[in-house]
Amino acid sequence: MTPTPSTADGQHTRAIRSIARLVVGLATTVGLTACQTDGQPISVPETVTSTITVTGPSIDTPAASSTPTVTTEESPAPTCSTDGSAAITAAAAQIPTPLPDSGPDAGWVFHGETNYNTCFDLSYAALETAGGTGSSPSQLLMFHLGRFVGRAIACNAAFQTVTGSSPTSVNVTYRYLNAGDPTANPTGRADVVFVWDASQVVMHGSLPYEVTQGKC
Fold first, then answer.
1. Which segments carry the region annotation Disordered (predicted)?
2. How far is CA 68 from CA 29, 50, 65, 71, 132, in A?
3. Which residue range(s) make up the domain with 194?
4. Which of 59, 113, 136, 152 could form a disulfide bond with 126, CB atoms 3.0-4.6 angstroms apart?
5. pLDDT of 11
6. What are the Cα distances from residue 78, in Å, to 114, 145, 165, 189?
7. pLDDT (tens digit, 9 = 90+) per residue, 175-192?
8. What contacts 34, CB < 8 A, 6 or more positions away?
9. Is 178 inside a domain boundary?
């Protein structure tokens, strides 16, 4: 009767076989290294790793566009002048004298009553007869933006009073004598308004014959 090998004997046998395979493998490796070709040992080629850097044209990121700043210069405000002395003197010399029969010594005089302004569409200057009385002729010089544009009315009238004005208009009251009125105290009255209508002076209202004496 053949005896059955024990478990310990089987494990021992497998261990011996593993050692034998390891020895054979090592011998084979040594033998390959020892083989020569043309008298030189065979070298196992090394693995060479190369790093290739590809440099391409740089791409610049465009700068963020900015909206240009537009600077608007405001037109300078016009310079207004209220000094009308030269303009008033020159204008007074251009109009007829106060009285048809006045001599060289009679003429117009300016006492300072004005709202002259080179920025006003309509301004005025009041003239009186030099050496005259309350019933002597008077006149209004009219200016547009400081430039003389003519008289308020085409004839000279007495008892003229400016009652109000603005940059575009002049309010005037003309008094006149009714029958029986003393020379210094006229009771008749006519109110008119002079305005600038873009090209000339226009009078709103009307003047009776007693004011104009039919001369204008």
1. 55-78
2. 80, 52, 9, 9, 70
3. 85-212
4. 113
5. 55
6. 21, 11, 21, 39
7. 999 999 999 899 999 999
8. 41
9. yes
